[in-house]
Amino acid sequence: MDDCIARRAFLRLIGTGAVSAWAFPGMLPSVARAQTRELQSKPIPSSGESLPMIGMGTWRTFNVGDDPKLLDARTRVVKAFFSRGGGLIDSSPMYGSAPETIGYALRELGAPKSLFSAEKVWSPAGGNAREQFASLAEQWGIKKFDLVQVHNLQDWREHLPLLREMRNEELIRYIGITTSHGRRHAEFEQVMASESLDFVQLTYNITHRDVESRLLPLARERGIAVIANRPYDGGSLIKGLKRREVVPEWAAQEFACRTWADFLLKFIVSHPALNCAIPATTQVAHMNENMQAGSGPMPDGRARQRMVGFVESL
Amino acid sequence: MNEWDTYRLLDFVPFTREVYFRLLERVGESFWPLQFVGLIFAGASIWLALRGRARIALLLLAPWWVVVGVIFFLQRYATLNWAGEYIGWVFIAEGVALSVLALFGAAPAVNSTSPIWHKASNLSGIVIAVFGFIGLPATALLQGYSRFQAEVFGLHADPTAMVTLGVVLIAVRRAYRWIAAAIPLIWLLLSALTQSVLGIGSSLAIYSVIAAGLLGVAWRD
């Protein structure tokens, strides 16, 4: 029965494609893409909820102050993100006006169901976790956050108990901690091992893989979801690759890798411990590239090794 | 790995090059044509400094530090960088310091009996002041930037610091020079580092101004 329905659906798809190709020849590729290239998701270990593998960072890129021209430009980036099935948007009080820029975009576009709001508590911003939560919620224009993380482990002993309280009050759904640039990994590991966390965020990309040895296995063992920041190493990694090299043919053949964004992001999210990568951009075209990386086949273990070898050989 | 080894200058600049240029442009747009008033004050201050009228030269500069502190840093830059609020207050403090120096401290450093360019500090002061006054905005216009994007004395931080540094080198005695020049020099260094990180070519000109400024301040005439 299921086979029969599947065959009918397949024939309908072929038929739709054939008619579309005849009536609207220019539209077929995008229709086909929309039907076959969905952004993939992975479950959050603590709940089983699905989270799209490509999210969106906002460090530097969304700090535009109250400039109307740039606020509109960033809104277009957020629109592209959601239109491609995006979910997680990550920000911090440390990122200047980024939370307000997100709030502006959400007011303009409406907050879609797929939005997974991720914020941080950052001690230098002043106030405790609850006060920062209230201020950030106002800036985003939302009542609850999906995830609040302790930024760079700062004062985590003080912030985590309060975040737990807020999770119990259902103001926050998940809590976590963050680090970046490979900083304070020993302490990070200790907190992961001793505290009840839903998420950790850390730097992981093809040139920064220190976390593979201890933190990622620990995350799997403890059932903690992992967000990878700095997937392009602050932009320098992808810019360097784009300047020097073309995407290797074997990557295109093995896992449909068309761009360097594909190459770098697929490497990250194909790690079994990783849930989501959060590249940041100011441009719609780059956002589209990023989102495309979360669809189609992913590299297996052997292909991942080959990818590392290729980048190290450059 | 030492944690400090992981920090890069880029980690301390929380906005992009595009946002930086828009900041300059929006200040220019919002206060047009105040640019001309600022330029008249800057030109007059340089001219008076060259004529040995140090007190009034400094008094003409002082209020513009308060203007830049408020409209550039407190109202705009601070929304992009938490440090902007502190820098804004430092600019206001420099305005107050220049006023105090003009009213109670400074005495003319220009010796009217010898040509002004005989002193190295005066010479570097003239070059810096003229560059900040007219060179910086002219370069921007020649490079194709709009009149709003051109940085000018009194609205934008860099030319305000440059003109002041130049006037201080021309007109303020050595003992007071360090006091009056410290904040302009520190700001110019911060600005040059920011622009280097953002890949903006004019950072090289600012580094040159800093070098000439330090030479002028330290030179024993």
Blueprint (SSEs and pairs):
The complex is a heterodimer of chains A (314) and B (221).
Chain A: H1 2-23, H2 28-36, E1 41-43, E2 50-52, H3 68-83, E3 88-90, H4 98-109, E4 116-121, H5 129-140, E5 145-150, H6 156-168, E6 172-178, H7 185-194, E7 199-203, H8 215-222, E8 225-229, H9 236-244, H10 249-255, H11 260-269, E9 276-277, H12 284-292, H13 301-313
Parallel strand pairs in A: 3-4, 4-5, 5-6, 6-7, 7-8, 8-9
Antiparallel strand pairs in A: 1-2
Helix pairs in contact in A: 3-4, 3-12, 4-5, 7-8
Chain B: H1 17-31, H2 34-50, H3 54-80, H4 83-105, H5 120-142, H6 157-171, H7 174-197, H8 203-218
Helix pairs in contact in B: 2-3, 2-5, 2-6, 3-4, 3-6, 4-7, 5-6, 5-8, 6-7, 6-8, 7-8
Tell me what the structure shows.
The complex is a heterodimer of chains A (314) and B (221). Chain A folds into two domains: 1-36; 40-313, NADP-dependent oxidoreductase domain (TIM Barrel), CATH 3.20.20.100. Helix content of chain A is 48%, strand content 13%. Chain A is built from 13 helices and nine strands. In chain A, the strands form two sheets. A seven-stranded parallel β-sheet of chain A has the order 3-4-5-6-7-8-9. In chain A, strand 4 (116-121), helix 5 and strand 5 form a beta-alpha-beta unit. In chain A, helix 3 (68-83) runs parallel beside helix 12 and helix 4 (98-109) packs across helix 5 (129-140). The relative contact order of chain A is 0.12. The model of chain A is unreliable at 1-36 (pLDDT under 50). Chain B has one domain (14-218). In chain B, helix 2 (34-50) packs antiparallel against helix 3 (54-80). The mean pLDDT of chain B is 89. The chains are: A alpha/beta (314), B mainly alpha (221). At the A-B interface, loops of A face helix 1 and helix 3 of B.
